[in-house]
Design a protein that fits this description.
Number of domains: 1
CATH class: Mainly Beta
Distance between the termini: 33 Å
Strand order of the largest sheet: 1-2-10-7-12-5
Shape: globular
CATH architecture: Sandwich
CATH superfamily: Jelly Rolls
Largest sheet: 6 strands, antiparallel
Low-confidence stretches: none
Helix content: under 10%
Structural class: mainly beta
Mean pLDDT: 96
Order of helices and strands: EEEEHEEEEEEEEEH
Amino acid sequence: MPEFIKTKIEGLIIVKPTVFTDDRGFFMETYSKKIFAENGIDVEFVQDNHSQSTKGVLRGLHFQKPPFSQDKLIRCTRGEVFDVAVDLRSNSPTFGQWEGVTLSAENKNMFFIPKGFAHGFLVLSDVADFQYKCSAFYNKESESGLLWNDPDIAIDWPKLESEFILSDKDKLWPSFSEIKNNPIF
């Protein structure tokens, strides 16, 4: 039975799967709707995504605006990433706070991020395969984000020997103060 660990921010859950290993390798159940629902993650996932990135790539902080908001169940299947969720729920006592967790092929942990959060990750290994389930289909017109290095959020990203590699759009997302003045969730 996996272990479901609640974080300091309501709704964010770290999932530590049960892993069975022997001389052939390992086996683990990555998702069971029944077990997840019994542990507070009662979501209908409709889309799975897989990205591959190299060391220093920072993707995020992304979210989909309502009505296309997405719950996500995230895991890293090769390499290692530092995964971050920022609470953008304006009625939440943790509005504007973030939680970070290291996900790797080695620790096999997963991270559940509900609707109302911006999400991003930084690749710490030479290469990382990043996979996640979503509760809503991607909608380009609903795509948005939060500036990855916003000083009001002050995410403590791990230090690397080189500059982070970002897409042009990830360098231009709005600041937290802009989002705070025009709440989305």
